[in-house]
Design a protein that fits this description.
The protein is of the alpha/beta class. It has helices at residues 4-22, 46-56, 71-80, 83-96, 111-122, 152-165, 169-174, 187-193, 197-200, 208-215, 257-260, 266-271, 289-295, and strands spanning 30-33, 62-64, 104-109, 128-134, 219-225, 241-242, 250-251, 275-280. Helix 5 links the parallel strand 3 and strand 4 (128-134). Helix 4 (83-96) crosses helix 5 (111-122). The chain is globular, with a radius of gyration of 21 Å.
């Protein structure tokens, strides 16, 4: 029989190895993607949320995606870099990160919500377990009533470009917001020329891998801000939108053709209890730590 000291030493090494492999708890890593006009590491926004999650879940690994080599590039790319290129860059980061090999949870803020959904649909490895969309616009936008961020001249230029021809090749290729611009008065134009949203929403054809990959999520949580002054229509945050052919009356996800035809598997996901619809009384991305801890933290544990 081996000496007790040898047994205890071996046990200690085993526990140390497990600690390195899993961290101080079994909480899955969290990947975050910021919204328009923000960056991965802004201390008053994404940096603060990262710190808050790390305090709430000691030992958790949090990766806040930087799209570009610098924070300035990351912010600019949120306006001007083709979304499909951004998604590919994000997928490459996730694939190369050994800490994510066993899977991860994801939380996207504003446009980062639909961008991370594209990651879930296009990049199944490493596996995304839970997707939390905080104010994401999953059916796109048809208006930019208040543009977040500090660059008002950029926002004015964006409005001008969207109004002059959101579906022109030039605007589609060089303006991020045009790639999730959804004109209910010109559905055929949107379906034909939208480079990003029409693809991930299966508007032109059904990509079975998109459907399969999205359905592999354990939970898809969508947060809508009831006093939102940025997203138009706000129903897009719960995957609803304007009824086709007009821009006043909205329909819920369950009333859309996307759901009824189940092109993305959302109806099957809801039947399986995988869809979660949450609401916050605030304006766009405005919530308290108490609300975050009560409503979102349980999906990260």
């Amino acid at each position: 029989m081996p000496p007790v000291r040898l047994i205890m030493g071996t046990l200690g090494l085993l526990l140390a190895a497990l600690h390195l492999a899993w961290g101080s708890n079994n909480t899955l890593p969290l990947v975050m993607w910021h919204g328009m006009g923000d960056s991965c590491c802004n201390p008053s926004s994404m940096g603060a949320i990262k710190k808050m999650v790390e305090e709430d879940l000691p030992g958790v690994y949090v990766l806040s995606l930087m799209i570009g080599k610098t924070i300035v590039q990351d912010t600019e790319n949120g306006f001007f870099l083709d979304v499909n290129t951004q998604v590919s860059m994000a997928c490459e980061q996730l694939t190369q990160d050994p800490k994510l090999k066993g899977g991860y949870n994801a939380m996207g803020f504003s446009q980062g919500g639909q961008f991370l959904r594209a990651v879930a649909q296009r990049c199944p490895s490493p596996p995304m377990k839970t997707l939390i969309s905080v104010g994401g616009q999953h059916q796109g936008v048809y208006g930019l009533p208040r543009c977040p961020g500090e660059s008002s001249h950029i926002c004015d230029w964006i409005r001008k470009m969207l109004n002059s021809g959101a579906y022109s090749d030039l605007v589609q290729k060089h303006l991020v917001q045009a790639q999730y611009w959804h004109d209910p008065l010109n559905e055929d134009l949107y379906k034909t020329h939208s480079l990003f949203l029409a693809d991930i929403n299966q508007e032109r054809m059904v990509n079975e891998s998109y459907k399969k990959n999205l359905q592999s999520l354990e939970k898809f949580v969508m947060v809508k801000f009831l006093q939102d002054s940025v997203v138009d229509p706000v129903d897009s945050e719960w995957f609803g939108f304007y009824k086709p052919g007009q821009g006043t009356e909205t329909e819920t996800l369950q009333e859309t053709a996307l759901y009824k035809e189940d092109r993305l598997g959302l109806a099957a996901m809801e039947k399986a209890g995988k869809l979660v619809f949450l609401a916050s009384e605030g304006d766009h991305l405005q919530f308290t730590r108490e609300w975050f801890d009560a409503k979102l933290l349980p999906y990260l544990r």
